[in-house]
Every structure is written in C-alpha cells, then in structure tokens.
Design a protein that fits this description.
The structure holds 2 protein chains of 2 kinds. Chain A is α+β, with helices and mostly antiparallel strands. Helix content of chain A is 17%, strand content 22%. Chain A is built from 4 helices and 8 strands; from the N terminus they run βαββαββαββαβ. In chain A, the strands form 4 sheets. Chain A has a two-stranded antiparallel sheet. In chain A, strands 2-3 form a two-stranded antiparallel sheet. Chain A is globular. Chain B is 42% helix and 15% strand. Chain B is built from 24 helices and 17 strands. The longest helix of chain B has 23 residues, at 569-591. Chain B starts with 8 loop residues before the first strand and ends with a helix. The model of chain B has no long low-confidence stretch (mean pLDDT 97). Classes of the chains: A alpha+beta, B alpha+beta.
Chain lengths: 136, 592
C-alpha cells in the first residue's frame, strides 16, 4: 500500500451514526466488539445535532509521538504514527496529547489504539462518509 | 456459547437496597439463546404470580443476544415486565445504542427490582453500578432536557445508552414509554410507568469490550456476506430512503389506513401525510441504531417563526415513522404535516407512547361527537378532527389529569370506555391500543392473538395482503400462519435481530451466524426453540389470568370496509375458537 494514503472523512454530514466503521476496525485487528477501535463515532451533543467522526488526521509532526517516554510511536510514512506495542508502557501520555481525541484506548491490553490508515473501515461505510485518499 | 463470553452474565440490581450482583447463567442462555427467550424465563422467575405492576416486586428485565455486537442488525434490546396497561405480559423492544451497550458492558441480561424512595438514575459502566440522585430531574417538563443533562454528566459518549422517562412515566400513566438516544423507544404497554413506580428516572449503560468468536476468519467471511446483503437489499433501501412512512400511500390505496378512529380506511389527506411528502419537505437527518447499516430513523426539521419577535426562528428535530403518522395523523384527521409534527413533538417531550395516545384521543373525539361526553366533561376543551392545537392541549391534560375525564383517558382507551361508554369504537386488544392496519381479518387476529398484542408479533397485516386479499381462505389457515410467523419471530427476538432484517436472517443464515458465537443450532432446532418460547410467553399470560375467550374484538372493525372487504364476525369467531384449541393443546403438551 502507498504509505501516503490516509483515511479521510469525506462528508461528516452523511454519517448516520451506525458505527459500522468502529466494528470493522476491530475485526481488521482480528477481534470482535469495540475494544481497540481506532475510530470513534458519536453525536455532537445529542442525536438531534448529528454525528461527529473522530480518527487520526495523520499529522506530519505528530504531538502524540513527541510525548511518548518509551519511544513506542514511530512516524508513519505519510503522517501519523505506528505503535511498537512491545515498547509501549501504557502511560497514556499520547492520549492526553491528542487534542482531537484520536488516540483511543485498548482497555484489555492497556495500550493506545491509533489508526494506521489501512482503509478497511471505509470499505464498510454504507453512506460514503469515509474514504482512503492520497494525502494532501 | 464460547468460553469467556460475558453473554451469560446477568446483572441483578435492587433499587430498594441500592445493591447489585452479577450471576453467571450459561444454562439460561443455552436454552433461551438471549433476548425474548431469556427475558421470558427471567420474568417468570422474578415476577411473583398476581404481582401488581406497580409493586417493587415487578421486575424490569432487559436482554440482548449472542449476535449483538458481532453481526449487523442484531441491535434490539428486549424488555419484559408486567404491564400496567394490560395487567399482563409486558414486552417491548428498542434499538438505539441500548443493545450494543449492554452486551459490550459485559451482560446478556439485566434485572431491575425493588423501588427507590427518592428519584434516582442508574449508571452501569462495565462491571460497576452507580446509584445517582435524580431529584432535580424529576418533574422536568421536557424529556429532551433530562437526556441532555445526563449526557453531560456521564462518561463514554458514543458507546452508551441513556434510557429515560418523561413526566408521563413519573406519573405512572400506564402507556408511558422509555426513550433512548432521543428518538428510539421502548414503546407500548407502559415500561415507562414501571420505571416511574420505582422512582427510576433513567438507566445509563456503557461498554466497549471485545467479544470472542469461534473462528475469526470464518466470522469475517459470514460478516461480509450479511453486510453485503443488508446494504444491497431492496427492503433495506426502502427503510433507508423513505423509512416506514413509505407505507402511508400504499395502505391508503388498498383502503387499509385507519382514519378518524377507523370510521374510514382511506384518508383524503394521505398525500400530504405520506413518506414522500415528509422526505421532500421536512427530512433533516437520518440516523441508525448501533451496528445497523440501514439508518431507517427519519428526523424532520421543523422551522417555526417565534410568535413574539420577527426574524426569530426555532428549529426542532422531530422523529417520524409510519405508526406515529397513523396514530397522531390519520386517526385524528390531521392532514397538515406541520401540525402533525408539532403534536408529535409534544408527545415526545412527555414520554407518552405515541400510538396509544393517538388511539385514546381518537376515541375521545368520537365520544364527544356522539354526545357520550360533553365539552364540559372535558373541562371545556373541544376536540375535533384535524384540530392539532386542541390535541396538543389534550396531551398536556392526559399528563396533568386536571379532571376525572382526563384521569380516565390516562388509563387507556379500554379503561376510559368502561367508564364513559363507547367500547364498540374503543380500539384496543388485550388492553393495548391498536396499530395502524385495517387490511382485513388477519391484521386484527394478529393483534388479538399476539402475545403482546402488537402488530410486530406476527405481522397479520402482511397475511392479509399476501393471502386474504388474493384467495379464498379459512380461519384455520390464517391462525396457523399467524402462529407460525410469531413462533419464528421468537427466534429473531431472542437474537434481538431487527424485524426489518428478517429477510436477510433466514433460518440458515441465523444458524451460520450463531456458529460464530459458539452456538450449534440447526434451523430445525431453532424452529422448535421459537415454538417453545412462544408457549412460555403464553404460559405466563395464562398464569396472570389471560383468557382468550374473554377478550373482545372492537365492534368498529366489522363496520368499516377493510382492504379485504367487510370483516365477517363468524369468520373471526371460528378463528378465535381454533386459536384457543391450538394454545390449549400446546399448554397441555408443555405441562406434561
């Protein structure tokens, strides 16, 4: 896969809040349910106000990486980070540092869950909210 | 069931003692699967015979199924309780985020018993249960506001459900519902009133754990097939595009759309009240339940100018569906879609069940028209077909009950007509106000024979359209079809699969998906489990005093022409007799 590809939110207003993407993410990682999902869908202050989709923006200079005391986050080609789970001590600094809340948490492993921009979730989005696109 | 699956965990909460415990009950889930199959057993265990629905002993049972969180469209929560409306089996299903939250919090079922002395709400976050003070929320005018406040105080947005009641539930109106995620409901039969009797304002549940699967590769393969079938199917497109409101025009064409308290079965205003009209002029947003690709929830945006100030507008987001359009629209002769939306919004803010409210108001309008009651009886409120403003006022009066008449109305249509007369046009079955189909004998038999007297029990209206309208048939054939459908639906509602997806989840597909969750059940075995659950529900009904021969068919259904012509009283009588023999024989078999 081209390292410069990244997951984009094409049209947030088309999101119906089904969370199929979150379930897809966990399946992609060989599990089921929602623990470890690297993408989050929730309402913006109640269902009547519509949905917001939260996922890693593939920062070229990721703040989460800079605060890792264990050197467990490496810059991904194309932006964002790749986690070296063996190094990660589960301190949660990265989660605190991401101001859009795109560092999710894998409770059972006590490690961060961060999108690697594989695009698996976009294949299941029924309403064209997500797409894997070449980074701008 | 797979080892380590938390499905078998049942969370027992005692509101009186403010205590809880978790019990592992694998055998219960092996036998009843989940949802309805597990809930009916928990209800029979926990609800003492003859229990007053408002007694602290009346349990509220919630159950989800093994496929919840694993496969799409298995996102309903089944609630069971003793109904204050029918005095018998209470069962209600709701989507939103409820089922996924319960399952991923680590439970297959929850049982809430006892009553609190002061208003509280429950917060269940994973394996912790918190009893929170809700005194400030009690009596709050607008149900939307209560949801908003809890939303701001509890963690885990996106992976939680907030089930809450409005003033109607607090006042224990026997047809008050429970609302989740602003627009989904545990409607019918008064779960909201049971919450109210326990001083339980809301239940928040959150969870996002992982689930085991038998073979992850096989699981992903089956998942992809179901997902594809769901997004490509014609039925699913229908529910996504116009939603259930698509049914308004076809039902009107075939003369099956109950109008003005079923004095008619066609509505001259059907065009403006159709799914097409709402989508074209008002549709503002569509929403989905968790893990459902369809997104059938249709929300209208109503922009209203302020009455006091120019250039000041309010925009309300109001949910609509076929049944509300029937109950608050055609049944009340309302052809102004904005009037309907305003009335709908009013009902939603109080937490009353929309369908029961509409039927109750339709009866009151006709009772006034016929002189059984006067405007004075009503406290000088004049209800007339189409006058949505008067109906909005009446909804407030049902909740506040300023006089004897509205006290009676707040008891449901059967109760009100027992006091003021007019039972022949009081449209209810087993005490539950009727659904929006006058398609023929099967629709009404379906409501009478359905274990919860709901159109969703067995879809009798569909039997009318597929059989009765097409060929000569017998009472026996209709009853067999109704029972057969209801029995299969017990399997679906034990897996908590949305009935809209019943075409996708065939017995073979169900059996395959269950394999991924570690249940080895063939289509034949599933079918006998469905039969058993159906009879277990009836066993509960009989235990609580249900007698089919004592139930009434409202006279009105024989007067107004249905889609299948005039309904014949003899045909219905024979059908009921035959149904009774089937249930009797099954009961005898069960008790062996």
């Amino acid at each position: 896969m081209d390292g410069r590809m990244r997951l984009s939110i094409v049209d947030r207003d088309r999101c119906v809040g089904c969370q199929i993407c979150m379930f897809a993410c966990v399946r992609r990682q060989g599990s089921a349910g929602l623990d470890g999902a690297c993408i989050g869908v929730r309402s913006v202050g109640g269902m009547e106000k519509g949905m917001t989709v939260i996922v890693c923006r593939a920062c070229p200079d990721p703040p989460c990486m800079k605060v890792c005391p264990a050197d467990a986050l490496k810059l991904r080609n194309g932006g964002g980070v790749i986690l070296d789970a063996e190094k990660c001590i589960g301190c949660g600094n990265c989660r605190e540092e991401c101001i859009i809340g795109a560092v999710f948490w894998w409770d059972e492993k006590n490690k961060p869950a961060i999108c690697i921009h594989c695009g698996y979730c976009a294949n299941f989005c029924p309403h064209g909210v997500l797409a894997l696109e070449r980074g701008k | 069931m797979l080892p380590g699956d938390t499905l078998c965990n049942v969370l027992y909460i005692d509101l009186g003692k403010k205590s809880y415990r978790i019990e592992k009950r694998p055998a219960l889930f092996e036998a009843g699967i989940g949802g309805a199959g597990v809930a009916i057993r928990l209800l029979a265990e926990e609800c003492p015979a003859g229990c007053d629905p408002f007694s602290p002993d009346n349990p509220v049972v919630f159950a989800v199924g093994p496929l919840t969180g694993l496969f799409p469209l298995a996102s309903k929560t089944v609630a069971m309780f003793k109904s204050p409306l029918s005095g018998n089996l209470g069962e209600s299903h709701c989507g939103g985020r409820s089922a996924v939250a319960i399952r991923l919090a680590g439970y297959g079922a929850m049982v809430i018993k006892g009553a609190s002395e002061t208003p509280i709400y429950l917060a269940v976050h994973g394996d912790k249960v918190y009893f929170r003070n809700a005194a400030t929320l009690w009596g709050m005018d607008n149900l939307f506001t209560a949801g908003q406040i809890i939303r701001g105080r509890e963690p885990s947005p996106g992976t939680r459900t907030i089930m809450r009641i409005g003033r109607a539930g607090e006042k224990m109106i026997p047809f008050a519902g429970v609302t989740t995620e602003t627009y989904r409901h545990f409607g019918r039969l008064g779960l909201g009133a049971v919450f109210g009797s326990k001083k339980l304002k809301a239940v928040v549940v959150s969870g996002a754990r992982s689930l085991p699967t038998k073979d992850v590769k096989e699981y992903r393969k089956i998942y992809e097939q179901i997902h594809k079938a769901a997004v490509e199917s014609e039925v699913m497109r229908k529910y996504h595009d116009l939603g259930t409101a698509e049914n308004v025009l076809p039902l009107n064409v075939i003369g099956g759309l109950p109008t003005r308290n079923l004095k008619d079965s066609r509505f001259e205003g059907a065009e403006t009240m159709s799914g097409e009209s709402f989508a074209g002029k008002y549709l503002g947003r569509r929403l989905a339940c968790s893990h459902c690709p369809v997104g059938c929830i249709h929300i209208a945006a109503l922009r209203e100018p302020d009455e006091r100030e120019a250039f000041f507008y309010k925009t309300s987001m109001i949910c609509y569906d076929y049944e509300p359009i029937y109950a608050l629209g055609t049944m009340l002769g309302i052809s102004d879609p904005e009037g309907f939306l305003k009335l709908m919004h009013k009902v939603e803010t109080t937490g009353l069940d929309v369908m029961s409210t509409g039927v109750v108001l339709a009866w009151a309008t006709e009772a006034l028209e016929r002189g059984l009651i006067t405007e004075e009886t009503m406290g000088w409120l004049r209800l007339s077909w189409g006058d949505y403003k008067a109906y909005i006022e009446a909804v407030e009066k049902i909740v506040e009950q300023p006089n004897d008449f509205f006290k009676a109305l707040a008891g449901g249509v059967e109760h009100a007509s027992a006091i003021y007369g007019g039972s022949e046009f009081a449209l209810s079955y087993g005490g539950n106000e009727m659904a929006g189909y006058h398609t023929g004998p099967a629709a009404h038999l379906g409501l009478l024979l359905g274990a919860r007297h709901s159109h969703l029990d067995n879809a009798g209206y569909s039997v009318d359209q597929k059989i009765v309208m097409k060929k000569q048939t017998t009472p026996r054939e209709i009853v067999d079809r109704i029972f057969e459908e209801e029995q299969w639906r017990q399997v679906l509602s034990s897996l908590v699969i949305c009935f809209f997806a019943r075409g996708i989840y065939t017995p073979e597909v169900v059996s395959e998906t269950l394999g991924s969750a570690g249940f080895a059940l063939s289509p034949d075995e599933l079918s006998s489990i469905g039969k058993k659950i159906h009879f277990e529900k009836y066993a509960f009904k009989f235990r609580e005093g249900f007698k089919l021969q004592e139930e009434r068919l409202p006279g009105r259904i024989f007067e107004t022409m249905s889609s299948a012509g005039r309904i014949d009283a003899d045909f219905m009588k024979q059908a009921v007799e035959y149904a009774e023999s089937v249930l009797g024989a099954a009961g005898a078999e069960e008790s062996k």
